[in-house]
Design brief:
Low-confidence stretches: 252-260
CATH class: Mainly Beta
Helix content: 25-40%
CATH architecture: Clam
Number of helices: 7
Number of strands: 13
Distance between the termini: 14 Å
Shape: elongated
Strand content: 25-35%
Number of domains: 1
Mean pLDDT: 81
CATH topology: outer membrane lipoprotein receptor (LolB), chain A
Radius of gyration: 20 Å
């Protein structure tokens, strides 16, 4: 049950927005509040929050088998998280719950049949029947899921060492999901990046988009500092990973070859 495709997708999404997030010094200093102030405060809140709810949608991955097309995740700096991911090209969906070093994963039947083609996928879907696989990050097959839930690691990816930062331009006040925001727009590597920052204080990032050059990405951010839901699946809802050792071995070996 490797989480590497989701880790790579989240990291890529962060890196697409990160140049804009660190351009506070180069942002336009006109307007009230100025683009510079909005960018600086949005960056600081995102980098220092202890917990966060974020989503991302990669429209270019929707037709690509084996790649995450969207994700909805609440996570904190202690490594706890709750979320879901949908795979491209009708590859099904998977739910993750992580509390401490315990991990629960639940894929729908389409997910298992896509991840494990042929008899293995059919067997997994029939055996699990909408139940979670439960184990810990000490299990080799589940260890990589620890990185998916690491907010601190995500925040570190938002602070690149860039010497070529282009300024952000402040746009007119608008709304995102009913929230008054001010868009900050810039260009980065042939892509148009727009950050939507709350118009009222505290100025936090609520949405970011990156479009162009084969990219069509949207990320949203909310629930800054709110606790991650602590409920975990019951024993009746779970199957211990040790009970799936033959199946786990087959899948893990296949995914290891693919993801390297």
């Amino acid at each position: 049950m490797t989480g590497r495709p989701l880790i790579c997708a989240a990291a890529s999404a962060a890196l697409l927005l990160s140049p804009a997030l660190v351009t506070a010094a180069a942002a336009d200093d006109t307007g009230d509040p100025s683009a510079r102030r909005l960018a600086r405060e949005a960056r600081d809140h995102l980098l220092h929050t202890q917990s966060l709810h974020m989503t991302w949608t990669d429209r270019t991955a929707a037709a690509k088998k084996g790649e995450p097309a969207s994700m909805d995740l609440s996570l904190d700096r202690d490594g706890n998280c709750v979320g879901t991911a949908r795979m491209g090209a009708h590859g099904g969906s998977i739910t993750i719950v992580k509390h401490g070093d315990e991990v629960w994963l639940k894929g729908d039947s389409t997910y298992w049949k896509t991840e494990l083609p042929g008899s293995e996928g059919t067997a997994a879907a029939e055996l699990l029947k909408d139940r979670y696989i439960h184990g810990s990050t000490h299990d080799r097959a589940l260890k990589e899921w620890e990185d998916v839930c690491d907010l601190d690691a995500f925040q570190r990816k938002l602070t690149p060492d860039s010497q070529h930062r282009k300024p952000l331009t402040r746009g007119d006040r608008t709304t995102v999901e009913g929230i008054p925001v001010i868009p900050l727009t810039g260009e980065e590597s042939g892509r148009r990046v727009t950050l939507y920052v709350t118009a009222d204080s505290p100025h936090v990032l609520v949405e970011g988009t990156s479009k162009g050059d084969g990219t069509d990405l949207t990320m949203t951010f909310s629930d800054y500092g709110e606790p991650v839901p602590s409920a975990t699946p019951s024993t009746k809802e779970s199957v211990d990973v040790s009970q799936l050792s033959p199946l786990t071995k087959v899948w893990f070996q296949k995914r290891l070859v693919v993801t390297g």
